[in-house]
Amino acid sequence: MSTTYESSVQVLEQVSTEVEAFRRPDYPVSPLFINRWSQRAYTDKAVDEETLNAVLEAGRWAPSASNLQPWRFIVAKTPEQREKFGQFINPNNRTWADHAPVLILLASNKLRADGELNGAHAFDTGAAWASIALQAKLLGLSTRAMGGFDRAKAREVLQVPDEVELHAVVALGYPGDKEQLPEALREREQPNGRRPLAESVIEGSF
Question: Is 121 in contact with 109 (CB distance < 8 Å)?
Answer without folding.
Answer: yes
